[in-house]
Structure formats: structure tokens, C-alpha cells
Amino acid sequence: PISVYFSCRQLQRCFRLSDATAQAVFFDRADAIMAPFLTNRFLALGGLFVKLGQWVANMSHGVPLKLQHRLKKLVDAAPFDSESYVHSLLQSEFGKPVDELFERLDPLPIASASIGQVHVAVLRGGKGKKVALK
Length: 134
Hints:
Layout: H1 2-15, H2 19-45, H3 48-57, H4 65-76, H5 83-94, H6 98-101, E1 102-105, E2 111-112, E3 117-123, E4 130-133
Antiparallel strand pairs: 1-3, 2-3, 3-4
């Protein structure tokens, strides 16, 4: 990704373009290509990379606006883990199948962040008491 911007700078110098012209001709186009690429890379790598993308999205200096706007996706809609992964994690942590722990566990989280998510569950034997499972 850095090489794309380096190439844009070299072309600007080669053609002796002003900063405004180079921005319109080269850098805006590079931003349009790199923003989705970097967002998808951060999502694919997950965890701390999603957190890094969220941090970059909130920077007010040194980051192209197109990249900031695209990375806001990581703040608003972080990816969540699959239902099977959540079930296996709960079973490994509690030593019991999910069906023995909860009467109901919503498969889709009500919230998702870079390193966790929240599900609504109903405790087994808890008289229908709803809990937030984090």
C-alpha cells in the first residue's frame, strides 16, 4: 500500500504537477483503491487489526478522508463470530453443552466489537431470567 502513494509522489515530481493537481489526478484515485483494500485486510486479520483500523478511522490528521470514511465500517459494524464458534467456546469454558447452561441463546449478537460480542441468553433454571452473555 505504501508503494502506491510513493509511486504517486514520483509521478507528481516527474510531471512537475502542483499539489492540488496531483491530489486530483493521482492521490484521490489511489485513496479510492486503497481504502477498500485496507479495510478488507484489517477485517480478514481480525482482533487487534480491527482495533487498529478503528483507531485510524478516528484520526483527524495524516489519514486520507476516503480511508477514514471506509474504516468507519470497522467502528459501526465489527464482524462477529459464528454460532458454532460461540457454542464451542462456551462448552470449553464451562465444561457443559450450551443446552445444559441456557434455555435459549440468541445466535446473533446484539453488539459486536473488535475483541468481543454480546448475546442475549435465558438461564436454565433461572425462571426465565435474561442475561447478557459477553
